[in-house]
């Protein structure tokens, strides 16, 4: 028995359903629509060690300077102007969430998120003991009126948003909503944590202006990742912050792990400098867009009006609203009996909601076209059976 050793926050920490289900998706006979995993068929080969700079020694906590400068130019293309001093290389963008949480959140703090939102962000916020309040969204993004009310009611320290091809709901904010949210945060002086790992997987003409770039006075932190477009196993991401935050972020990073794995940073940096990155993104977008369309077609033809979903303009996920009375948790159990793995929406809701058990998040990125059709057919059979029960 070690429970008396745990802090009050770690006693309450829940495991991530996504990570728990991951072991099923590794079984060869299981078709998985559950994880947010990229397709390894389209991951570039690792560069050979001979072409990489020597990375055997300890390195700087901020990250390799060449990679930080590359990040400066990547985010400049997105409309976010920064300098290498305000870029921190992190062990995936997940670590960026951890670092900012350790810096600003404790048991007295409140943070606002979208409803639904990325469940592993909630895990990190909860680990610091923070209170999470989720705010309703419409098709344009987080509802401005609901956000204003939540700010006035809860006096949050920060707002956590995934404005582009959100995980799990897939939505993308309109430019107008981005501007309105930025203006409200400036007015209230609230920190924006903008998490943007999916933006390069963009299949339609949509506005992707970073909300951070629209802020005039409010503090901000922007998180990016190479996981969805290169190699998630290499665990390389970054944060870009308003200058006032940068020295604090580095101190927390030093305390956590000294610095991110240098070999991984070298691999990413080498690939970016090789000139092949733009063409690689074109291929990824073509492949994933096609998979998205095949899944949309399969869902429509197998389930018709029984379910509702919006076509995601980018990213990896469909957010499927189940027919009334059909539980997402039961769908998971029944589909797994037929070797199809889906992810119930339940853990993506930080607070109680009557709709909690009414959604599935379906990822189309890693499955083959054939398997998309097979998996959706099984899923449709399960949903129809549950409806008649
Ligand atoms: N934020 C969001 C919204 C995500 O979906 C993920 C990965 N699923 C992450 C952050 C973490 O990504 P990574 O640590 O691999 O960069």
Automatic annotation (TrEMBL):
Keywords: Aminotransferase, Pyridoxal phosphate, Transferase. It is an enzyme of class 2 (transferase). The keyword Transferase applies. Its cofactor is pyridoxal 5'-phosphate. GO terms for biological process: alpha-amino acid metabolic process. GO terms for molecular function: 2-aminoadipate transaminase activity; pyridoxal phosphate binding. Belongs to the class-I pyridoxal-phosphate-dependent aminotransferase family. The keyword Transferase applies. This is 2-aminoadipate transaminase. Homodimer. PANTHER family: AMINOTRANSFERASE (PTHR42790), KYNURENINE_ALPHA-AMINOADIPATE AMINOTRANSFERASE, MITOCHONDRIAL (PTHR42790:SF19). Residues 55-378 form the Aminotransferase class I/classII large domain. It comes from Marinomonas spartinae. InterPro entries: Aminotransferase_I/II_large, Class-I_PLP-dep_aminotransf, PyrdxlP-dep_Trfase, PyrdxlP-dep_Trfase_major, PyrdxlP-dep_Trfase_small. Gene3D superfamilies: Aspartate Aminotransferase, domain 1, Type I PLP-dependent aspartate aminotransferase-like (Major domain). It comes from the Bacteria. Its EC number is 2.6.1.39. It holds the Pfam family Aminotran_1_2.
């Amino acid at each position: 028995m070690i429970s008396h050793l745990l802090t009050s926050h770690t006693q309450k920490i829940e495991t991530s359903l996504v990570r728990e289900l991951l072991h099923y998706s590794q079984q060869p006979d299981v078709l998985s629509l559950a994880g947010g995993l990229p397709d390894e068929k389209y991951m570039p080969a690792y560069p050979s060690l001979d072409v990489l700079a020597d990375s055997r020694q300890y390195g700087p906590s901020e990250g390799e300077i060449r990679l930080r400068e590359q990040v400066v130019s990547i985010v400049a293309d997105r409309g976010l102007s920064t300098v290498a001093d305000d870029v921190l290389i992190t062990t995936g963008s997940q670590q960026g969430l951890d670092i900012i949480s350790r810096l600003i959140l404790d048991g007295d703090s409140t943070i606002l998120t979208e409803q639904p939102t990325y469940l592993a962000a909630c895990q990190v916020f909860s680990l610091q003991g923070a209170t999470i309040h989720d705010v309703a969204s419409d098709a344009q993004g987080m509802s401005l009126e609901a956000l204003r009310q939540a700010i006035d009611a809860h006096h949050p320290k920060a707002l956590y948003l995934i404005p582009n091809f959100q995980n799990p709901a897939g939505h993308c904010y309109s430019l107008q909503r981005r501007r309105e949210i930025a203006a409200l945060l400036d007015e209230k002086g609230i920190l924006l944590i903008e998490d943007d790992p999916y933006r390069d997987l963009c299949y339609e003409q949509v506005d992707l202006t970073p909300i951070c770039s629209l802020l005039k006075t409010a503090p901000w932190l922007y998180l990016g990742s190479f996981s969805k477009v290169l190699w998630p196993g290499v665990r390389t991401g970054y944060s870009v912050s308003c200058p006032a935050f940068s020295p604090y972020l580095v101190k927390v990073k030093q305390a956590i792990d000294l610095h991110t794995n240098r070999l991984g940073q070298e691999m990413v940096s080498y690939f970016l400098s090789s000139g092949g990155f733009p063409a690689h993104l074109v291929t990824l977008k073509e492949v994933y867009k096609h998979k998205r369309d095949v899944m949309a077609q399969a869902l429509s033809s197998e389930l018709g009006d029984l379910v509702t979903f919006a076509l995601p303009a980018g990213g990896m996920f469909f957010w499927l609203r189940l027919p009334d009375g059909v539980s997402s948790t039961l769908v998971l159990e029944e589909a797994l009996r037929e070797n199809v793995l889906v992810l119930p929406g339940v853990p993506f809701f930080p607070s109680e909601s009557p709709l909690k058990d009414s959604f599935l998040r379906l990822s189309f990125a890693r499955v083959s076209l054939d398997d998309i059709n097979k998996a959706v057919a099984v899923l449709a059979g399960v949903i129809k059976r549950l409806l008649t029960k």
